[in-house]
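Changelog-adjacent note: as of this version, every example in the card shows the full chain rather than a window. The one below runs 285 residues end to end.
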Amino acid sequence: MKNTNAFTWETYAVPKIAADGCETFEIRTLKAGRTGARKTWSAAPVLLDYLSLKDGLKDIKEKNFGDGSLLDMALESKGNCSQHNHSYNILELGGGSGFLSVGLAKSLRSSSDPFTCNAKIMCTDNDKNTMKNMRWNVCENNESKTIATQKLDWSDSIGGDKFASALERKFKAKNTSRFVEEQNNSVDPITFLTHVIGSDIHFGHQTLQPLSSIIAAIKHRNPIAQVIIMLKERSENGVSDLVAEIEKKLQEGNNGHDNQCNFTVHVRDVVETGVPELNMKLVEC
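Full-length structure tokens:
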């Protein structure tokens, strides 16, 4: 029996890469607690559609970031999603109820691409009750094999040794030769990641420094990891301040590294023809 005094249940459709019927999934949210666990915020379903149906996970070099470029969610995708030559290892920041990770796992599994449908995801947050509810949603949706849950505080240490060990357990290749195993043992676990995602995880001054710090730290340790963040524009300069802080930290970190990388943070307005203004922005680097 559902405890409706403490929880609310929300039902969502799975965005299908290879459309075949209609699959739904249910997410339990808390009636009290941290904001991320109390509801599925508006940017999360939009980001799920972008990643699943708009080829949002493809190589960033293939994306159009022209001046004034828009992401129109109402436009049809151009053909099938790109084929890939490696598996996805995805880290979600500020996962809250787990909606985005659960929905993405189910959607990617509908793909005919063997690399896409075998994606691995780690969903993170930093609040005890939020994490407990997130694990419940992952288990109830039968996604424990695909999705690992892990506590993560945002800082330039990226969770330290404990989080590094969790990344190794989830993403390190198994059943490899001894030579490959020895090589993997010397690899920074952050480099196992292919994507870092998040939705509605910036709320102004309180998240500006920690969020920009962890994004910059991940990019310095793994320059090819793609960061994809969908944000509701809640204040006039909220997103632009975050982008400026990320770029500042990327440059500061670059100055301290022998192997310098050129980082560009791209921002697009998110619109949907026929729908009132979404007031969202997509940040990618």
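Structural remarks: The longest strand covers residues 7-13.
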